[in-house]
Amino acid sequence: MTQSPKMLIFSRFRATPQSLAALVSLEVERKYVGKSNLPYTAAWKKRHLNPKPNQGPTLALFHPSPFLIRAVDPLDVKGKATVKQIRARTRQQIIRALPTSIAPEAPNARSNRRRKPAWAILAAIERAQKAPLAREFAAVQKSWGRVAPKDATLQTLLKQRQEADPITWLSRWELDALVDLALGAPGVVTGRALYRHLPELFDFQEQHFARLVNFCWTRLRTYLDRPVFWSVLPGEDATQKYQNACVDGCLEAVLDEHFWLRKSKVNPDGLIEDLSAALAANVGTFGFRGAKKKDKIRIRCHAAVPFGGTETETHRQDHDVDEPPPARSEEIRSAFNTPFWPHVLATTSVGQEGLDFHSWCDRLGHWDLCSSPVDLEQREGRVQRFGGLTVRQPLARKLGEQALAQARGQASSPWDIIARHADKAFADDKTGLSPWWTMEGAELKRHLFALPQSRDIDRFAKLRTQRLLYRLVLGQPDQEDLVELLTHHDAETTRSLQALTLDLSAFSREKRLDE
User: Residues 189-213: what's their mean pLDDT?
Assistant: First the structure.
């Protein structure tokens, strides 16, 4: 659940991307099998978040509750607040937003031991809302009813939610359960992140909420129900496991940043469909053939995937009906440009020109070196781009605290505030490169897969020098490489730079005339 660093790996050899993805996938599989008593194939088919009768907690996990989304703002705390302080503030916000017919405490100590299910408590609160929100519960139920009208189990859960007993007070445990849902339920945090960018979310005539409900149940739930998540996340109870992961991994903050980033290309009312399409990319499989025709190793793509080689003939020829078809290149590129799967993308030169992978990736690996500085520029240019993660990270460190302070209590995205302040702070920059192209601390993390004392280390240094000269000719020097080069006082490099320099001083002219 935590936003792990993404890496883009380049190789010149066609077979290497599949091999790299296989190594990473096998490592994930090894860790998973080590934690499970089930055979791997059986474990992959097992699902923990499928709806079952009397399983209201699963519905509550992915219910984007209008009450909790509007009532709770985790940013409405003092700077650098602890999780305990955020929970206490969330508790106050829920109490303040409760309908007047529901008291925030039990009438006596014995009643305070009551533990109604959180989904039933939330349904009772939403149904008890007064005008102008009195009709909202029916609209929410209607949106849910359209998600899977033929799913008998889901319809049964919705009926139970409709018939939940009314309440007049909350026990301490029940109030804590609401705090857990408000801060950690995937449906709630997704809805609140979207609400910061789409204030019309609860205009039920526009169907924004209906699309959000459909996304939470059909896309987000099935994505989080992958066995890999179940094996990696601690705990056994599904509700507590995913709620803790959303809080520890800051899922709401990640989605808020992603929605802000995508607003430059997608209208706010299309953000949820945009993310839904990216999550639709199947994990898929790819295979390796052995010496004999019948020998084949099938590898599932967990954290890594080869780019441009997933829809191969090997899958079509040996298709398993139990396996989903592999994602195509365009689907993989869209998925890689989200905070979600995949986290490692291995590609040949097919991915180094005309494609963007910078949205959530700041690490680039060279499995082997390219042949020219122009190719190196193309490779690293996939990640070092306008508004990429390499720039957003130092920008957030510089302006983040100020933005969080201003966003407090406004239900607005801190990234909207960061963008406004960044444009003002760097208004004097005439180049137009700051702050979204380059700034102090905006560094690409390069990895060269080479053995110690390998000739590739020297070759890579020479390639970077050649690329710098290439950039100087175009008038686009890279400050990091340029300063590093000039401080070494290399005579050969100095002569190369002098040949590219336009010396217009009068003294140089007199010297040339004397010669």
Answer: 94
Q: How crowded is residue 398: how many other Cβ atoms within 10 Å of its Cβ?
A: 17
Neighbours of 108 (CB within 10 A): 8
Closest CA to 467 of 316, 366, 359: 366
What is the H or E stretch that residue 95 is in?
helix 83-97
Between CA 224 and CA 94 the distance in angstroms is 27
Q: Which two structure tokens, joined as six digits, stand for 204?
A: 């039920």
Task: Provide the pLDDT confidence category of residue 228 given band limits of 50, 70 and 90.
Answer: confident
d(CA 344, CA 6): 6
Residue-wise over 281-300: b if at least 16 C-beta within 10 A, else e?
bbbbbbeeeeeeeeeeeebb
How far, in Å, CA of 191 to CA of 201, rounded? 8
Closest CA to 255 of 219, 205, 305, 296: 219
Residue 296: C-alpha distances to residues 30, 191, 286, 293, 338 (Å): 19, 44, 10, 8, 32
Whether residue 403 is predicted with pLDDT greater than 50 in this model: the reply is yes
Predicted TM-score (pTM) of the model is 0.86
At the top level of CATH, the class of 6-43+280-381 is alpha beta
Three-state secondary structure call for residue 197: coil
Cα 211 vs. chain centroid, distance in angstroms? Answer: 20
- Enumerate the domain spans of the chain: 6-43+280-381, 56-224, 393-439
| Tens digits of residue pLDDT in 236-267 | 888 899 999 999 999 999 999 999 999 989 99
Rounded to whole angstroms, how far apart are CA atoms 64 and 216?
8
Q: What is the DSSP letter of 103?
A: B
**DSSP string covering 340-392, please?**
SS-SEEEE-GGGSSS----SSEEEEEESS--SSHHHHHHHHHTTS-TT-HHHH
Instruction: Show the tokens assigned to 408.
Output: 């407090």
